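New to this. Please check this record:
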Amino acid sequence: MTDPTHAATWAERYSRQILLKEIGGEGQRTLNDARVGILGSDGAARAALLYLAGAGVGEVRLADDLTEPREAMAHWARELNPTIAIRATPAPTTPEALAAWLDGLGLVIDCRQDWPGLNPLCHERVIPLLTNGFAADGRGWLAGSRAGSDPALPCLACQPLPAPAPTPDPLWFSLWQGLAGTMLATEATKALLRIGAPLLWSHTFTLDPATSDPHTVTRERNPACPVCAQAPRPILAATPALLPEPAATPVEATIDISRETCPMTFVRVKLKLATLAPGQRLRVRLSGGEPLHNVPLSLRDLGFQVSAPWQEGELYGLLVTKPDHFK
């Protein structure tokens, strides 16, 4: 896919978003570099896809068994924004196929709720997961999981989600799906940009579409959860370098973010990488704790190749390679 930042119409296409102080040009490039997966082709999936396409998410993978709705959704999204990649495929039918479908994604929206292996795989791969449904009491609901990157948060298996309505009222159900898709796209965008209040990672949001009565229900982490009660994903440790003599490795640029705090650590590295050509390498010097955890994780989410860390006294070093798909 052609990098939209090099298109003459890029600034015009995204001008309203770039003007927002929470997004700006750097945030828009983050969206252009992002990859999101959507499972399903119902009203919520359609609304979420169109809003994400309009926002400029660089690649959206759409998977569902219903060929006509799936291909129609892909067609609408491509017409709305021809500068992004829409990859429409049948739903994965095996755990191996699901794992392959998830490769490289930075976030998943599940509108099917029929994949028991999705939550564990997203947890293992540290992929944020958003989902929704319509409960038997007539309330729509939204929930999410980011437990893979924060062991203090619950995953979607920690507590039972609302039981689905066997025969939902068609009017309220269709209204909810439109609302749900809009909210899923909003929460996905907030997660990709790391802005706003992350409500759905620790709460279930519910809404009665007949009365517009909203509620939030706190979800607690279950110490006995079969998914996230296992040992949390280890933070990159302060260990000796796995790379031999990293100081002797040739690089095209260096950056020291050891005095920066999150999220400026990631922002500065990404701005520096934007000046490099594909295949070139950046040497990063950073402090331990949150920067050592978050910066490599965020870069890998975007598809950058990140080395194992090495220790430099009280600080740490990384090598980051810009991949070929960042033209």
Notes: The domain at 246-321 is CATH 3.30.110.40 (Translation Initiation Factor IF3). Residues 14 and 151 are 36 Å apart (CA to CA). The two ends are 9 Å apart (CA to CA).
